[in-house]
Amino acid sequence: MDTGVFYCYYSAHGAMKVLLVEPLKVIWEMMRPCVPPPLGLAQLAAVLEENNIDVKILDCTALNIGPDALAQAIWEEQPDVVGATALTPFFYHAVEIAQIAKQVDSRIVTVLGGPHVTYLPEETLKQNPAIDIVARGEGERTLVDLVHCLEHGNQLSQVKGIGFRSNGEVVLTESQPLVDVNELPLPAYHLLPMEKYYFPILGRFATVLASRGCPHQCTFCSEWRFWGGRWRKRDPKKIGDELELLVRKYNMESIWFGDDCFNVSGELIQGICDEIKARHLDFSWFYQGRADLLVEHRDLLPLMKETGNRMVQIGVEASTQQELEELNKKLALDKVAQAVELLRKYAIVSQGLMIVGTRTDSAESIMHKVRYMQSLDVDFPVFTMFTPFPGSDIYEQAKANNWLETQDYSLYDMANPAMSTQHLTRKQLTASFRWCYSAYYANPFRLVRGLVSRNDWKRRVWWHMFKFTLKQIARSLTRF
Prior knowledge:
alpha/beta; Rossmann fold; pyruvate-formate lyase- activating enzyme; 2 domains; 20 helices; 16 strands; 16% strand
């Protein structure tokens, strides 16, 4: 579909209806049966509603809606625009949504946003004729402008931040300016089945962003670039309003702060904790952040614990200073040990992320990483496969050096290898990856200590990870 067809149909069609779809997808095995709310779609919907645009959200994962049921839902809703978010490992699920929409009605305008299409817009449009438009970067202002453009029959080239086909060629418009995060309305949670969002460790939970972006530029990460290379914090009062809505109206037991780096600012953390206390909100909360910043803001840990902070995810990433430098982590290794010890002191569960499968990894270096995590005595280590996400420096380096061994984006999920190392094949990497979990979680001493821990959250984590590790061991045994 090109701009001429858009003009002919929509200039006569009038006010438009938008349907935002979260695809039916299977998330990383370790997290199952977690069902997280699609916060990005809820935020987009809120901005559309604020601009008097008719919008609905269909969460196929939460409602277990397959392709046939999705087609029926689209037929019943009769939307003019169908939109979806494309994260790299779930890219094909997003493409399927566009294909189903076109099968229902070829006149529906299909729009994909998110990191994957932001970094690979030409590839996406050239290889997927069912996708009409890609929204690059932040989507709130872009989607509103796009809907208004279609309603009035204007040219797509006037809309900033999109890509589309015109006369067989891909056209990319200039980038959309970053939004003021404090001008955004609260996400449209009323359009989601909030009772469906659950994780055994957390109970009923939702995700909240206290900020967008990250001031750091790790080579394996593409998120900092997606958010414009800037860190922007929200007003603690607005965050408090959102937390109160989620806890009081939707009975959420836990909140996951999904910021790329939650603990950038001690002032922001203090403000959020003050809001929680002032509103007498009772819930547990978690975040991911940097070890060195946790140490820097250690005076806030008592207040954080008091207001419900039960678990912290820190990026350990490597077991040597040299590898941290290669990843551009800009983190001193000793800060990691200090951070874990501080969390232990305040009985806050420590979750440490460790990357497996970097270019120089060998069986010996992976073993060293596991031993390092054991020496730290992290409560909840998570080993992640080195994944060259589009938009990351590593992806560009891998492409330039022909290291990528698969273009199957469903494998770009931090659990499967997309490339070998200098010492290990992808098959060997997969075996080493599974071994990491069994080596840590199947240790009899750690296992018993975790399963009977007095810390309720640590005990929950260990029971969950014990079941996951048993599956990993069983899968390994079936290969023999």
